[in-house]
């Protein structure tokens, strides 16, 4: 039932999106994460393409890498190539394959200096044959960030920036995630292989609560099936359900 | 092309004040110091190679004698041969020469680029004279005739060096028999019989010539007359395709160089398109007016003849070319080509366009970062974790993977990092470990998974891998090197991070 009011709101929301670094037309391609609880909170029903997404996590923890790998696997949809810009050259193909990112669809680029990294990301974002570009970066400057955003928007290629430093947020990202490992239950019936605490720290179109994040989930991964599930962790769960309020 | 006084010219280039003096290089041979090479002034005074230095000094007291450096002369001659590739890709250093040095240039089909044979010769001699090298160059139908003409013909102007096509038999007839590249004693024998000119040999029956003087005379005569082919093996294998651009005035500006490269790339791509080829490696040679050569090479991950793409790859390199006092000639060679079928853009499937676009990206990244930095990951048949993945060229077609069984980490450290481990039992899993100055208490451990070294390698120590989870949920892949021995402390390493 589309009332004139809701249509006007939808139009306004589209305008907001355009101002926020999403491609104006055609509508950005949305990739579902495949985790229903998370897709429901994202205003687009998934990750919009042609924009920048930022993932942070400590360096001595593989969870953020795992989350990024999952994102790339979803964006690649098993057929389209993706490019990963790394500084340390420590990606291990069998591990990536376990998260659904088939290594023969992956091009790994090693860039040693920050300038080379950003140049590589920008060049790769111009290539429409790629599904996504992942860059392991450290605090890009505002100018660099703006450049990457413009390139991503014009080509429609999605950029994922993985950061291990905890500096201020990368202003042009339309979503920002913080992913760390979470402790699993000691019970023997816990058959999951990994558990992450996934915080959606920032998201265009959603405002975050006093806790400093928009929403928090505990995500479990099972290697045998390769699927994810959201668990309600009693100890670490926030007092009330994750707030998903609309931007005013 | 004959360089009669190459060795001494090289010395004069360094010491111009010796230009007019008698100058000789010497080698120690057979217990005496002998003259190896001598310049024109020295020759005029009667000094010849092979004299002892004492005899030469008796003739010319102020003779400047310098130790000969045959190895350096050889290198310099090779460099000069490389410089000569501005005229033709087919350049060779003459292997048969004893006096002076010589180079072969096969200019077949190249002369029109420089305005004809005469202008090419004038240009070549003028440039060599500016470098300080005396040169006598001749163009003839056969290498043998050119050799004889360069040494023995009267060359007053550069045009005298040209033996017109088909005329070499009559022209060289008047030259001495030494022009047939024969040993001095053989020349003496011929002289003794009154056979002084090459033409004197023409009427003699071939069988008699061979029987009397050996096959070499006949062989050299046939080579000079062209009845026997004489292959010249070039210094470097000539490239499959080449485009050359010679400038009337030296080019110095970056914009001029870029325009020239664009022109060359377009020319080369036209040639490649006619032959249904694509370039895999391209070499750009810039010949500077001071005789230096700047070269830049690019490679592509897939055969290409797209001028815009190839020019873009070169643009990364153009800043690095130092034009010095200007570039005279630029040459672009396709040193490696591969078949590339002509394509019709409208009919090609979309996947082709995608693959091409990706190949272009790989080339651009590889040109700037180095091809080794742009890689795909491929499986390799090894159960050693770090050897199970090969980094292959990104341009290669992806193969069906066969990844090792067992749970593997997402990140594998390039070098396993030593950790301090507290283990309750010596050959059991760790209870606590310190990695990068952080203490991790182990909440769960799985394993061990024993991976033995490959017996054909020296470092074949077995490893016991544990998959451990600390109390924050972080998961690591650690191993203990070697089997448990009561007398030696266990060595533990952290090798990877799980997600």
Protein model, in words:
The complex is a heterodimer of chains A (248) and B (499). Chain A has 248 residues and is α/β, with parallel strands linked by helices. Chain A has a single domain, classed as P-loop containing nucleotide triphosphate hydrolases (Rossmann fold). Helices cover 27% and strands 24% of the residues of chain A. Chain A has six helices and eleven strands. In chain A, helix 4 links the parallel strand 4 and strand 5 (106-110). In chain A, helix 5 (114-125) runs parallel beside helix 6. Chain A is globular. Chain A starts with a helix and ends in a 17-residue tail after the last strand. With 499 residues, chain B is α+β, with helices and mostly antiparallel strands. Chain B has four domains: 1-137, MutS, DNA mismatch repair protein, domain I; 166-238, DNA polymerase, domain 1 (Orthogonal Bundle), CATH 1.10.150; 241-360, DNA polymerase, Y-family, little finger domain (Dna Ligase, domain 1, 2-Layer Sandwich); 411-497, no CATH class. Chain B is built from 14 helices and 18 strands. Chain B has helices at 6-14, 40-44, 53-59, 70-84, 117-131, 143-152, 168-172, 184-192, 198-201, 206-213, 215-225, 254-274, 307-318, 350-369, and strands at 2-3, 23-29, 32-38, 64-67, 91-93, 101-105, 241-251, 277-288, 293-304, 327-339, 374-379, 389-393, 411-422, 432-435, 438-451, 463-470, 475-481, 491-497. Chain B has a six-stranded antiparallel beta barrel. In chain B, strands 7-10-8-9 form a four-stranded antiparallel sheet, covered by helices on one side. In chain B, strands 1-6-5 form a three-stranded antiparallel sheet. Chain B is elongated. At the A-B interface, helix 3, helix 4, strand 5, helix 5 and strand 9 of A face helix 14, strand 11, strand 13 and strand 15 of B.
């Amino acid at each position: 039932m589309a009332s004139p009011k809701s249509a006007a709101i939808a139009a306004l929301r589209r305008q907001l999106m355009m101002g926020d670094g999403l491609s104006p037309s055609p509508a950005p391609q949305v990739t579902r994460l495949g985790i229903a609880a998370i897709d429901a909170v994202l205003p687009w029903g998934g990750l919009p393409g042609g924009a920048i997404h930022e993932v942070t996590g400590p360096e001595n923890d593989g969870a953020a890498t795992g989350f990024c790998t999952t994102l790339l696997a979803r964006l690649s949809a098993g057929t389209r190539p993706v490019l990963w810009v790394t500084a340390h050259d420590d990606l291990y193909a069998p591990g990536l394959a376990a998260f659904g990112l088939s290594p023969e669809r992956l091009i790994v680029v090693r860039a040693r200096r920050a300038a080379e990294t950003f140049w590589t990301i920008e060049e790769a974002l111009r290539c429409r044959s790629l599904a996504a570009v992942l860059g392991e970066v450290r605090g890009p400057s505002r100018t660099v960030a703006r450049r990457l955003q413009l390139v991503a928007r014009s080509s429609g290629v999605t950029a994922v920036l993985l950061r291990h430093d905890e500096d201020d947020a990368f202003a042009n990202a339309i979503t920002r995630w913080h992913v760390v490992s979470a402790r699993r239950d000691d019970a023997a019936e816990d058959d999951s292989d990994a558990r992450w605490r996934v915080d959606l720290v920032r998201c265009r179109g959603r405002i975050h609560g006093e806790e400093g994040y928009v929403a928090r989930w505990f995500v479990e991964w099972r290697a045998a099936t390769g699927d994810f599930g959201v668990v309600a962790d009693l100890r670490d769960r926030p007092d009330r359900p994750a707030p998903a309020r609309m931007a005013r | 092309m004959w360089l009669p006084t190459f060795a001494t010219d090289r010395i004069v280039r360094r010491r111009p004040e010796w230009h007019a003096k008698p100058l000789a290089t010497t080698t120690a041979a057979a217990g005496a110091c002998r003259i190896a090479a001598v310049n024109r002034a020295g020759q005029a005074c009667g000094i010849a190679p092979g004299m002892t230095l004492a005899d030469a000094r008796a003739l010319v007291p102020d003779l400047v004698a310098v130790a000969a450096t045959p190895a350096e002369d050889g290198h310099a001659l090779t460099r000069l041969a490389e410089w000569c590739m501005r005229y033709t890709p087919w350049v060779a250093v003459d292997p048969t020469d004893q006096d002076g040095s010589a180079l072969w240039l096969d200019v077949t089909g190249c002369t029109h680029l420089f305005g004809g044979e005469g202008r090419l010769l004038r240009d070549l001699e003028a440039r060599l004279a500016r470098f300080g090298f005396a040169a006598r160059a001749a163009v003839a139908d056969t290498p043998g005739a050119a050799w004889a003409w360069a040494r023995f013909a009267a060359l007053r102007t550069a045009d005298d060096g040209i033996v017109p096509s088909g005329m070499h038999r009559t022209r060289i007839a008047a030259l001495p028999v030494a022009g047939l590249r024969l040993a001095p004693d053989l020349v003496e024998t011929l002289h003794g019989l009154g056979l002084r000119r090459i033409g004197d040999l023409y009427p003699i029956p071939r069988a008699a010539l061979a029987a009397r003087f050996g096959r070499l005379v006949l062989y050299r005569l046939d080579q000079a007359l062209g009845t026997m082919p004489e292959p010249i093996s070039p210094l470097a294998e000539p490239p499959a395709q080449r485009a050359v651009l010679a400038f009337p005035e030296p080019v110095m500006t970056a914009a001029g160089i870029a325009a020239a490269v664009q022109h060359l790339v377009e020319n080369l791509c036209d040639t490649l398109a006619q032959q249904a080829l694509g370039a895999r490696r391209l070499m750009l040679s810039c010949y500077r007016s001071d005789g230096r050569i700047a070269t830049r090479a690019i490679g592509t991950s897939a055969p290409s003849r797209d001028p815009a793409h190839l020019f873009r790859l070169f643009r990364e390199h153009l800043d690095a070319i130092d034009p010095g006092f200007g570039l005279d000639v630029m040459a672009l060679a396709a040193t490696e080509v591969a078949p590339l079928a002509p394509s019709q853009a409208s009919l090609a499937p979309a996947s082709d366009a995608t693959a091409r676009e990706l190949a272009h990206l790989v080339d651009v990244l590889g040109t700037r970062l180095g091809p080794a930095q742009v890689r795909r990951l491929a499986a390799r048949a090894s159960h050693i974790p770090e050897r199970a993945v090969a980094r292959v060229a990104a341009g290669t077609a992806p193969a069906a993977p066969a990844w090792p069984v067992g749970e593997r980490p997402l990140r594998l450290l390039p070098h396993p990092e030593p950790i301090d481990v507290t283990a309750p039992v010596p050959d059991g899993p760790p209870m606590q470990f310190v990695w990068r100055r952080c203490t991790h208490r182990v909440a769960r451990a799985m394993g061990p998974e024993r991976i033995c070294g490959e017996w054909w390698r020296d470092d074949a120590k077995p490893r016991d891998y544990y998959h451990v989870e600390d109390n924050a949920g972080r998961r690591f892949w650690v191993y203990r090197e070697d089997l448990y021995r009561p007398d030696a402390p266990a060595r533990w390493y952290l090798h990877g991070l799980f997600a």
